[in-house]
Predict the 3D structure of the following.
Amino acid sequence: MTYVCSVNATQVDDDTDEMRFIAGLPDDDAEEEGILAFLAGAEVYIMGRVLYEEFAKHFQGKTAADHPFAPIYAATDKIVFSRTLESAEWERTTINRGDLVTEVEKLKSEGDGYMIVTGRSGVTRELLHHDLIDEFRITVFPFLGGQGDRVFAPDDVGESKFLELVSCHPGTNGVVVLHYRRRR
């Protein structure tokens, strides 16, 4: 199973300058169709407690009319790596209290599809550090934030990792989706 890291510069919080800017971008139907197909093709989403709680708050029980990602997330298995999350009420969610690296290596050997981790969480950073991410989908928005965290810090990357460009899709609204594969 391929492990894909989908990185974008956004947080789920709707009340930031960044999210207000993104929400105000003109629609790009082709871009959205590609993103929806990519998300729908995943066998499983991997996340930590914080992202799970944010995603559940925004997408659980919602329809496509509320947000186009909601039915895709609802229909896909989600594994939350957490030692503190008591329960997971969102359908198709499993809490995994095992070692993240060991468990993801096991998942990668079992399937033939792809898993997605989103964002710049501790889960993403640990998997990156252990070279367990095979592909990167990076969404670049035409917005420079004056504050916030780096997408990847040097300690997250560990040893240098070489990537090869698979595709670059500039949208009509200024958003660019970059697809890189880990060169091994």
The two ends are 16 Å apart (CA to CA).
